[in-house]
Write a structure and sequence with these properties.
Blueprint lengths: L2 H9 L2 H9 L4 E10 L6 E8 L4 E6 L5 E6 L17 H14 L6 E11 L2 E10 L4 E7 L4 E8 L1 H5 L4 H4 L8 H11 L2 H25 L1
Antiparallel strand pairs: 1-2, 1-5, 2-3, 3-4, 5-6, 6-7, 7-8
């Protein structure tokens, strides 16, 4: 589905109705999705910015609608997101796969973490994927043109350096299958760290586009 049906589903909930009564000027700023193609465990989240409280209201739509209020990252007010997106969430994997094949990347996408937001007036998808070859794919996709703006592979070695100390004890050691499993286990706990990961992706996207503008 595209973003709009998820927002419409949210708007029919009691949780949203209660929130809207207290925050009439709130507006959509992001969509956050985790799609697990192997285990079928997905997360669909819509974020609103509430000017009155200066907080972000994150609505998770899976199984039931839940709301979590968060402090705004930094001082800059996020741009409003037009919910009439062009790219279907289900088609995002295909867009990335086509670009991967063009660059001779043959692995399959097994898990996808995607954030859509407005950056400098443009709707951009910031996507992190777990690949079957035990690597991470990082990409930016322009929603209106369906163009892949950035595609980068991150090795499992780099990922392992950022996870628990027992793995960091041997930084020069070549990663084993067991190391890879432990690294992927960290990613599979995304439900517990969902908000931190989303903030990191959003900050990364904003920072990179700021650098592009300076150039």
């Amino acid at each position: 589905m595209k973003l709009k049906p998820y927002v419409e589903k949210l708007e029919s909930s009691k949780e949203y109705e209660t929130f809207r009564k207290e925050n009439k000027d709130a507006f959509v700023v992001a969509g956050f999705f985790v799609i697990d193609f192997e285990q079928g465990r997905h997360i669909h989240q819509i974020d609103f910015y509430a000017p009155k409280s200066k907080k972000v209201a994150a609505f998770t739509l899976d199984s039931k609608v839940t709301l979590q209020l968060m402090n705004l990252m930094g001082k800059k007010i996020p741009e409003e997101l037009d919910i009439d997106t062009k790219i279907d969430l289900d088609a995002l994997k295909g867009i990335l796969t086509d670009e991967m094949r063009n660059r001779n990347i043959t692995e399959e996408i097994t898990k996808m973490i995607a954030v859509i937001q407005t950056v400098k007036g443009k709707k951009i998808w910031n996507v992190n994927c777990v690949l079957s070859g035990m690597e991470i794919l990082k990409a930016h996709v322009d929603d209106s043109s369906e163009t892949v703006l950035k595609l980068e592979r991150v090795s499992m070695t780099d990922l392992i350096k950022k996870i628990p100390k027992q793995l960091q004890a041997a930084p020069n050691k070549k990663p084993t299958k067991e190391d890879a499993k432990q690294a992927l286990s960290q990613l599979q706990k995304m439900e517990e760290q969902i908000l931190k990961e989303k903030e990191r992706l959003q900050q990364e996207l904003q920072a990179e586009h700021s650098e592009v503008k300076k150039k």
